[in-house]
Amino acid sequence: MELNMCVLPGDGIGPEVTEQTVRLLEVVGQKFHHKLNFDYGLIGGAAYDETGQPLPDDTLDLCHNNDVTLLGAVGGPAWDHLPGDKRPEKGLLDLRQKLQVFANLRPIRYIPAVSKSSPLKSEYLEGVDLLVVRELTGGIYFGEKSKGIDKASDLCAYQRHEIERVIRVAAQMAKQRRGKLCSIDKANVLETSRFWREVSNKIMTNEFPEITLTHCLVDAAAAYLIQSAAQFDVIVTENMFGDILSDEASVLCGSLGLLPSASLGEGGVGLYEPVHGSAPDIAGKNLANPSGTMLSAALALRYSYSLTEEADAIDAAIDTVLQSGCMTKDLSPNDYVSTREFTDAVIQALG
Ligand code: NAD
């Protein structure tokens, strides 16, 4: 199979983690007999420095011309003084919106080898293997905004089709996993939540009768994620609740450096990126944990190319390396390997 990927290294540790992930992907390609083509583009502060724009048109064209986009991270103190529309983060928000990636997926799973990095006791973590699906392009973040001297407002609005499409993505994921979907809302107070519940019930009854759908209020869900996260399989929720809950859930498994994400649109469009930012404090020092980016690449193989065996091989190789005690500084501050050495170990574990 021929895989065409656009790589946007971005800023800070972005270039380090994407470089190592491309190394790993090349080896996966050789092992499983795929031809991988990589196109490189600028985004964020690096793009601003070169072109005056955080998301140049050329970059957007590259993303559109490839099957998937793999992004490192954007941002850093060098660009903090810029006006809002020139900031690196604006480039990323625009990219998500222009690619129309409406479903953001964050898998979170307990890895025993790194349980010490989690603030929770391992008895609360055992069995945790969940997927948060967050609606990414609607709701209060994109509603009409106003600010006066004594009053400000942000409108939260959802259209039927925006709810239907994200529920379908979440239900498909549940189908490939343990068959359970929990939709999170605030239906005791908000009209948008009552509508979300109505629309999701209808889609699930008509199209996915084999999936067990439950509903949970967002305040209760926030507590359950700490008390009993193992009960969840797939969680689906609107933009702002998803933003908050996915960050809460990310703490469960330890370091930010381990967490991948996928943002999916219609027709297989996919933007894959680690959850972490550009980590300016460790940038350029060969200290970053590349796992989040490698696992994001595995999600690209899984979701955009249906290459399950290849994706499983990456996940398993990272688990093996962590299990062996080989860790980057975020996971093992006193006895650690560099970004490159960690990648060497993952490549070796791939066999
Ligand atoms: P951050 O995620 O960059 O860093 C938070 C802490 O986690 C830091 O101590 C950092 O060293 C550590 N860390 C993060 N990723 C790591 C990795 N892979 N390996 C080891 N340690 C890692 O968040 P921040 O410090 O709040 O933000 C820094 C910059 O990144 C800001 O400019 C922010 O706007 C930007 N940011 C970008 C994204 C993105 O590109 N998606 C997301 C969040 C923040």
Descriptive terms for the model:
single chain; 351 residues; alpha/beta; Isopropylmalate Dehydrogenase; 2 domains; ten-stranded mixed β-sheet; two-stranded antiparallel ribbon; 12 helices; 42% helix; globular; binds nicotinamide-adenine-dinucleotide
Quick description:
With 351 residues, the protein is an alpha/beta fold.
What is the 3D shape?
globular
CATH topology of the largest domain: Isopropylmalate Dehydrogenase
- Work out the count of structural domains: 2
Mean pLDDT: 96
Can you say what the CATH homologous superfamily of the largest domain is?
Answer: Isopropylmalate Dehydrogenase
What is the count of β-strands? 12
**H and E string:** EHEHHEHEHEEEHEHEHEHEEHHH
CATH architecture of the largest domain: 3-Layer(aba) Sandwich
Total helical elements: 12
**Radius of gyration over alpha carbons?**
20 Å
Low-confidence stretches: none
| Class by alpha and beta content | alpha/beta
Distance from N terminus to C terminus (CA atoms, Å) equals 20 Å
Give the strand line-up of the largest sheet: 2-1-3-12-11-4-5-10-8-9
Main pleated-sheet profile: 10 strands, mixed
CATH class of the largest domain: Alpha Beta
Bound small molecules, deduplicated: nicotinamide-adenine-dinucleotide
Give the amount of beta strand, in percent.
15-25%
Helix amount: 40-55%
Explain what you see:
With 351 residues, the protein is of the alpha/beta class. It has two domains: 1-101 and 261-351, 3-Layer(aba) Sandwich (Isopropylmalate Dehydrogenase), CATH 3.40.718.10; 119-252, Isopropylmalate Dehydrogenase (3-Layer(aba) Sandwich). The chain is 42% helix and 19% strand. It has twelve helices and twelve strands. The strands form two sheets. Strands 2-1-3-12-11-4-5-10-8-9 form a ten-stranded mixed β-sheet, with helices on both faces. Helix 7 (191-207) links the parallel strand 8 (180-185) and strand 9. The longest helix has 19 residues, at 14-32. The protein is globular and about 50 Å long. The two termini are 20 Å apart. The structure holds nicotinamide-adenine-dinucleotide. Residues 13, 73-76, 89, 92, 256-257, 273, 276-282, 288-289, 292, 330 line the site of nicotinamide-adenine-dinucleotide.
